[in-house]
Automatic annotation (TrEMBL):
GO MF annotation list: deaminase activity
Pfam families attached to this UniProt entry: Ribonuc_L-PSP
Domain of life, source organism: Bacteria
Lineage: Bacteria, Pseudomonadati, Pseudomonadota, Betaproteobacteria, Burkholderiales
Cellular component GO terms held in the UniProt record: cytosol
Name of protein: Reactive intermediate/imine deaminase
Length: 128
């Protein structure tokens, strides 16, 4: 895809595996709905474990991206939703392990609750 990173010293540096901004080449923009850690086969949460839910949510997101004709490299923007912001570092570490560089832009939002009692949700914008 050839996305390029925008970085300025006039704004704070990223505090995780994301870029301040991304410029995407002209292409087809796809807006993905949020994914939580549900197992596709059962429709139930993969586990009560936060890290397992994060990994499953990213796996679900990857499946939707691939069905749309993209790859993880196609991501230009992620939004993470956490019910417990004290687990922010854990979500960062998993994201850094799964998402290729250059990292997309990203926002992280603390929320009171998520569907089915999930602890984590991820949504994405991709350009293919």
């Amino acid at each position: 895809m050839g996305k390029s990173v925008i970085h300025t010293e006039a704004a704070p540096a990223a505090v995780g595996p994301y870029s301040q901004a991304i410029v995407a080449p002209q292409g087809r923009t796809v807006y993905l709905s949020g994914q939580i850690g549900l197992e596709p086969e059962t429709g139930e949460l993969v586990s009560e474990n936060f890290e397992a839910q994060v990994r499953q949510a990213f796996s679900n997101m990857k499946a939707v991206i691939e069905e749309a004709g993209g790859t993880l490299e196609s991501i230009v923007k992620l939004t993470l939703f956490l019910t417990d912001l004290s687990k922010f570092a854990s979500a960062n570490a998993i994201m850094a392990d799964l998402i290729p560089q250059p990292f997309p832009s990203r926002s992280t939002v603390g929320v009171a609750s998520l569907p089915k009692g999930a602890q984590f949700e991820v949504e994405a914008i991709i350009v293919i």
